[in-house]
């Protein structure tokens, strides 16, 4: 048996609608689901970015097929989206044009490059080109 990858990544936001607008506006992610409990965004047609209100998942949640156990996080989370090596400069310009400050840029020993930025809730986003991880 093998794991097929990470399907969902969850971030927690003070204002989920604002967070969803940020990610839709910056990356053009389509909305898969939007409810009072969460917003689910399509990332590259194979991953899901879940946006939950901070503290909104501290209790179990009943669904027709069972019960989702409580989960949550505190502080700022981190995630990285894969980008093509030839797109790093275009992404830098795109972030700047949309008023998203680049907090740091790293050139890794294997040739990979990362652009770090914050979302409106302080979560640390990263755009990373191939070369850091052996499988990227």
From TrEMBL:
Q: SUPFAM superfamilies, from UniProt?
A: Glyoxalase/Bleomycin resistance protein/Dihydroxybiphenyl dioxygenase
InterPro entries assigned to the protein according to its UniProt record, in alphabetical order: Glyas_Bleomycin-R_OHBP_Dase, Glyas_Fos-R_dOase_dom, VOC_core
Superkingdom of the source species: Bacteria
Q: Where is the signal peptide?
A: none
Domain (VOC): residue spans on this chain: 5-130
What PROSITE patterns would the database entry show?
A: VOC
- State the Pfam families in the record: Glyoxalase
Q: What is this protein called?
A: VOC family protein
């Amino acid at each position: 048996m093998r794991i097929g990858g990470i399907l969902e990544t969850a971030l927690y936001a003070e204002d989920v609608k604002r967070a969803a607008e940020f990610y839709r506006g910056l990356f053009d992610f389509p909305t898969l689901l939007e409810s009072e409990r969460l917003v689910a965004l399509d990332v590259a047609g194979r991953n899901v970015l879940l946006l939950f209100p901070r503290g909104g998942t501290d209790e179990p949640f009943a669904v027709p097929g069972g019960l989702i156990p409580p989960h949550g996080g505190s502080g700022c989370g981190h995630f990285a989206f894969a980008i093509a090596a030839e797109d790093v400069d275009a992404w830098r310009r795109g972030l700047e044009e949309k008023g998203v400050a680049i907090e740091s840029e790293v050139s890794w020993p294997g040739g990979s490059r990362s652009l770090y930025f914050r979302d409106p809730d302080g979560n640390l986003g990263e755009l990373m080109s191939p070369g850091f991880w052996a499988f990227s």
